[in-house]
Amino acid sequence: MDWLKHASGTVSGENMKGPLHFACIALMCLLPAAPMAAQTATATASLDRRIAITFDDLPWASLDPNTPLPAQGTVPPRIAAESARLVQAIEAAGTPAIGFVNSARLLVRGQPQPDRTAILDAWLDAGLELGNHTATHADLHAVGVQAYEDDILACDRVLRPLLAKRDHEPQWFRHPYLRTGRTLEDKAAMDVFLAAHGYRIAPVTITDSDWIWAAAYAKALDGGDAATQAKLRAQYVPYLLRMVNYFEHRSIKLLGYALPQVMLLHANALNADTYPDFVAGLRARGYRFVGIDEAMRDPAYRRADEFTSALSTSWIHRWAIAAGKSWKFYGGEPTSPKWVVDLAGVPIGPE
């Protein structure tokens, strides 16, 4: 996400290069006979690139729990088609994925809706995982620990029986807004509560502003503007790949190796329509797709998380802050183009 812009304006400058990059430059001087491209290819091939893909706000980010009850169905046909395209794209790509559920999105005026639950069934039928994202997308920093725990349990009461039909149990919890506690005491209380209910926190190491692009894409869809839709799709995938590259280099700079990443996306039309191209771009870069459980086996994820800010930032940045890295470490994070932000109509720091 354009997280630093919310705090202090746009961060500019080229992407910082990791130690591996500088090692390659040093080798150039020692091995003049080897072409630069060959050395770069060798160094690149040596990286173990793995990524776990996660989607927030299931069953669908734009489903409204307060719409009037229609005579037939509460999922608009366009959303039903978009959701089906996303699941089909994930399944066709053969990539593991987990979707994090806001159970209130399954209701309309407090009443459970089978056509909304059917979206989650489709995820499970495709062999995908589901996790808890609170019932109402609550903000821990705003509502406090007790109300937040109640919201987690409200989602659990819906999610647990749904998974039990397939002999599964919910294991993963994702904090809305990536806000994990205003104080260390709140964070410790949440750790105890989640562990007591069988949940592990699903961190995010690759953040992005797909929600901005998705808002712009929704406007283009609403307006029937095919040219703008195509322009957004064409520029969105390279933007995501730049974000992956940025956090890959940040992990190398901080940890000394390419971390198995956990990437945050949202259940929306833009991701449904671009997922095959995004997967192709990652595979061209040498990435293997893994489940969140495999990614989390990396020892970096056992680092203490003492981050208490409201900024929705990557765990890599959290670890870097704990390690006392200077502001230069965070420079170069890709930002959303002004024309996309303007079309989306969302408030954000200056571009």
UniProtKB/TrEMBL annotation:
Which Pfam families does the entry link to? Polysacc_deac_1 (PF01522)
For this protein, the parts annotated as crossing the membrane are: none
Q: Which SUPFAM superfamilies match?
A: Glycoside hydrolase/deacetylase (SSF88713)
| Alphabetized UniProt keyword annotations | Hydrolase, Metal-binding
Family matches, as CDD domains: CE4_NodB_like_1
- Source domain of life is Bacteria
Q: Which residues form the NodB homology domain?
A: 48-186
Question: Can you say what this protein is called?
Answer: NodB homology domain-containing protein
Task: State the organism's lineage.
Answer: Bacteria, Pseudomonadati, Pseudomonadota, Gammaproteobacteria, Lysobacterales
